[in-house]
């Protein structure tokens, strides 16, 4: 499910971003510090779920909800309990009182998604490339390369440039399919045709190096997951 966060406090933004990234079937496409920016975004970019703070600059989360036509699922995230009754009158999915745990976060998300889908690996994800968020099929990714302050996502047909670091992709991609084989490379093990102690050869004819520090982990990984 495509979701956004409307939250003006950086610590709360970071917590929600971490929780969302740890939940396979949620895809975070944007974080907004106020509701007016989010409202502009929503006019052209539909989403399935909004994590919404109440105490926001310019316009409160409650007023934003009242003004939002055809609202998606809403999970409120706030430090104030006194808005609970009013929020449920606006048909919010859940009301998370800060600070909340990941377990409590998941309980709220379970109300939006069937339980059985939460643990399924995602088939697609959005990558941030410049000012765009581009949807790609995870299985189409051959490998990801770190390039200074950017990463290159190489798929079967195209190459995408993202500002996200390599460690971000290690966190969001399925761990039983993608592995780091070098300080600069993550590879989709399903694309590997053969490997030696020093290189892996992919089905798209790319040949990638295996870093010395990653050799043992790579071999143990492929044997354990039976991917080759």
Automatic annotation (TrEMBL):
InterPro entries: CheY-like_superfamily, LytR-like, LytTR_DNA-bd_dom, Sig_transdc_resp-reg_receiver. The keyword Secreted does not apply. It holds the Pfam family LytTR. It comes from the Bacteria. Residues 2-113 form the Response regulatory domain. Keywords: Phosphoprotein. The modification 4-aspartylphosphate is found at residue 53. One of its GO terms (molecular function) is DNA binding. Residues 125-213 form the HTH LytTR-type domain. The keyword Phosphoprotein applies. This is LytTR family two component transcriptional regulator.
């Amino acid at each position: 499910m495509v979701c956004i966060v409307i939250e003006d406090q950086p610590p709360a933004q970071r917590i929600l971003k971490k929780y969302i990234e740890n939940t396979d079937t949620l895809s975070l496409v944007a974080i907004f510090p106020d509701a007016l920016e989010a409202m502009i975004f929503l006019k052209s970019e539909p989403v399935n779920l909004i994590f919404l703070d109440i105490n926001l600059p310019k316009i409160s989360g409650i007023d934003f909800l009242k003004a939002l036509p055809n609202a998606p699922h809403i999970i409120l995230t706030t430090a104030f309990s006194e808005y609970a009754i009013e929020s449920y009158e606006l048909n919010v999915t859940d009301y998370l009182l800060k600070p909340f745990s990941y377990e409590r976060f998941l309980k709220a998300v379970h109300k939006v998604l069937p339980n059985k889908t939460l643990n399924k690996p995602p088939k697609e994800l959005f990558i941030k490339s410049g000012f765009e968020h581009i949807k790609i099929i995870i299985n189409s990714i051959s490998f990801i390369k770190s390039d200074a302050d950017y990463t290159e996502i190489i798929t079967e047909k195209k190459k995408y440039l993202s500002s996200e670091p390599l460690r971000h992709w290690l966190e969001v991609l399925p761990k039983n399919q993608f592995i780091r084989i070098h300080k600069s490379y993550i590879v989709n093990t399903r694309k590997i045709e053969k490997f030696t102690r020093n290189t892996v050869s992919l089905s798209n004819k790319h040949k990638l190096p295996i870093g010395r520090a990653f050799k043992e982990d790579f071999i143990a990984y492929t044997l354990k997951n039976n991917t080759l």
